[in-house]
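Throughout our pipeline, every protein is held as a single compact record rather than as scattered files. Such a record has a labelled line for the sequence and another for the backbone structure tokens. The remainder of this section carries one protein's record, kept here as part of the documentation:
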Amino acid sequence: MPDPVKRPRRKSRPKPGDASTSDAGYSPAGRSTSRKPGGATRTKRKGKYNASGLHLDGSWFASSAEGERYRQLAAMEKSGEIDSLELQPAFPIRIHNTLVCTYRADFRYRVIDELGRELRWCIEDVKGYFTEVYVLKRKMAEAYHHIKIIEIPSRQIELWAGRLP
């Protein structure tokens, strides 16, 4: 019979009210905490890939770069360069009538000319980091829906102000 695996002992957490340690800044998993009125604590989680999200015009954007691109596109919609700006459009991917996955882009809009005629539809995704899952879903969505997804690097978001792909 094999020997049982010895596991290292976990360090004990400081207990609330312990005189030797202060629990005011303690937080599990590296999360920052703050005190609410009445003594309760509120834990703030770090965003995925260190992105800090924000709210704009009643919508939530997962990164500040995505929010900035929304501001740019909203300004272009007001000036009449684009039309039908849509946030988080979904593209379901089905194989043999079975839903495999759903790709969600950041933006979809219609580019129009000065006479108001539709020139083309654009689908954009603001990316700071390309995961293997994202690349696979993007390729499947492009093949299944016969679309082209424009990727905008988050570090170059200022260069896209007033620009259309």
